[in-house]
Amino acid sequence: MALRQIKHYQKDDVLRKKSKIVEKIDERTKILIDDMIETMYHADGVGLAAPQVGILKRVIVVDIGEGVHVLINPEITIEAGEATDYEGCLSVPGVKGQVTRPAEITVEGLNRDGKKIRMKASGLLARAICHEIDHLEGILFVDKTIPEDIDN
Ligand code: CO
Fold first, then answer.
1. Fewer CB in 10 Å around end: N or C, the chain?
2. pLDDT tier at 48 (50, 70, 90 boundaries)?
3. Tell me, what's the pLDDT at 150?
4. pLDDT, average across residues 101-118
5. From the CA of 116, how far away is ligand 1's center (Å)?
6. Quick one: 119 exposed, middle or buried, by C-beta within 10 A (0-12, 13-18, 19+)?
């Protein structure tokens, strides 16, 4: 596994492009997934989408502290309620902002082995999945909020 460089939203327009469906989960895809997981943990993030490491493929990884979820070609099939909370993004360092997201979602996709998965998520997990899926459309959380500086 290897760390990948996380793209910065003001320096790389790859973050504004739409990612492509993964047609085949080959060795390259698996290496990408493993590298994304390592990169996310190294950066102390709760999620990462492939375009954040410069790859326009529909792959996200999320871990809010209860184990990693890998989702390939993720689709939100059910949304319920609304919740507003602060978010940040590894590609938008130093900034936080309140974003309204669905309170609960059902998401479908494939796991690292190409097996179909369907999972329900709420709270931070739902928020993180929605945030990462937005990345696959070239959408950043700062598009949906009034950005505030993170004071350190
Ligand atoms: Co992000």
1. C
2. very high
3. 87
4. 98
5. 24
6. middle
pTM: 0.96
Active-site residue flag, 79: no
Contact (Cβ atoms closer than 8 angstroms) between residue 77 and residue 108? yes
Q: What is the tens place of the pLDDT at every residue in 54-83? A: 999 999 999 999 999 999 999 999 999 999
Span from the CA of 152 to the centroid of ligand 1 (angstroms): 20
- Annotated catalytic residue within 79, 132, 137, 148: 132
Superfamily of domain 13-149 in CATH is Peptide deformylase (3.90.45.10)
CA distance 19 to 119: 22
Residue type, 91: S
Separation of 118 CA from ligand 1 center, angstroms? 22
Q: How many CB atoms lie within 10 A of CB 132?
A: 24
